[in-house]
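Collaborator request log, item 7. Partner lab (contact: R.S.) asked for a structural prediction of NADH dehydrogenase subunit L to inform their binding assays.
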Amino acid sequence: MTYYASLLSLIPLLPLFSALILLFSKPNKLTTALLAVGSISGAACISLFLNFVFWQQTDFVLTSNLGNWIKIAQLHINFSLYLDALSLVMITIITGVGALIHLYSIGFMYQDKDFKRYFTYLNLFVSAMLFLVLADNLLLLYLGWEGVGLCSYLLIGFWYQDRDNNLAANKAFLMTRIGDTAMALGLFLLFIELGTLNIQDLQVQALSVWSSSNNNMANLCCLLLLGGALGKSAQFPLQNWLPDAMAGPTPVSALIHAATMVTAGIYLIARNSQLFQMAPDVMYLIAFIGTITLLLGASAAMVQSDLKRILAYSTISQLGYMFLALGVGAGASAVFHLMTHAFFKALLFLSAGALIYSLHHEHNIFKMGGLLKKLPIVATSFAIGCAALASLPFTSGFFSKELILEQLIDSGHTNFWWAAVLGAFITAFYSARLFFVVFLGDSKQSPDKQPEKIMSLVLLLLCFFSLFGGIQPSGIQTLMPKLNASGLTTLQHWLPIVLPFIAISLAWWMFKTNLFGKTITVPALQYFHQLLKSGWAFDRIYQVIFVSPFKFLCQLNKSDIIDLHYRALEKISKLLHKKFSQFQNGKLRCYNASLIIFCVLAFAWFIKGALMS
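Returned to partner:
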């Protein structure tokens, strides 16, 4: 096991060392590519080897201690890694999909002048995410948590010369900090209440200290952890940073949406499932938030014209499905959908990148069209990715989303089931709309180049996983307590299968009648369309409720009331200095007189005190 523990340590350390080498050296582009892609590919190979070793085992645990980190009084934190079925699934997704995105990036970013800086950030991003999912304690997890936050900021604003990119990076950083602050408070509270931050010990201590279900302190701790998950995984009401995060290079968007960043919140709740099971009210809240988010994201994606924003709102919606599954206790289904989503969302984003690369960096889908035969590999990739996103039968997305829907029925949450089915219908509709407009519409422009061969290779590999990634790993079924299976009615069985085809038929009819992209003349419909396109106007709402009042108070307090006291002290000090400095005139008789006066006054003070006593 020592040998396996050493291999486990290499998984996050390889990309970390690669990032440090790139940071402190000046390699050429070829060396940069070999180092960056080689390190993450090495980590992926080790992950696959560990899968092979532990595939038949469902209750294995592998630990690796990299040294002591903090030892203060009762707080003992080791830099330790912990591998079980859940973290094995996660590192396989992160390194596998991450390696493909790194490989794709060679072709996509090769002409960029900051090629080395890009791969430095990318390696560091993956390393931080690996530390997050392998951490055996919440403090090390939080270190990786903040690491992915920093790297996402750097990569979203990678082309910092454009002010809009800087604003998008700032928005992502600040909005996720809201959740991170709540999570930090949760860690403090957990340590005070349970005396440890070790994840496995926390679950045991919680059962003994909070013996009753729905304990108030358990609810509070879980709510604070949930706050962190909502921020990182872009869930209501902290979801509106993610569409703007599309400002970075397209492979970065793929990495954020498929293998890192937004999956962190799902992992946090899944990893602490026993803790959350002690807070049923919070679990219901998670399911409710997931339901709101999946409908919000899907409806917003339905009317977008920017290619990457459609996919961004789609991610928000799909993450909502995962939260919904977590909230009803079907964590295994949530992690399974996380895995399949990583495959087809990486495929969709990288296909979008190839499309943008070939079309003069065009993002508007209504300025594309007729590309089915002009870009056959990209068209095939989009077709498979959209089919998996729409949960068409025998694609990876079908198996994972259907499992979530079945377990919603098993758990007795019929209302949530109807909402999820509605979300699936909308998802199939906007997926079909995207494909029809881009590849079957009237030709608006011709591609000036084909995707690089290395980009096409990655797309074909992801096509395979998007089709056949629905084979459920044996470890996933052991991640969470399973629900009692019960039979579905005919309606419950067939409706989720038939609805996507109805949605695609509706999209085809609207496409053939030229309703997509047509100017809306009815004022009410025009207003509703604009509301959806703005993501339900959350930016505007937050501007009115938080940003504008804050700016008003800042303007009102531009002289800083608190600083006025210190400035007054400063002025008094300067005044006294100016007055007393007048006595320093260099005249000996004045100095002697001042000494005599001081002595007389001191003597008089002494005599007065003696007489009064």
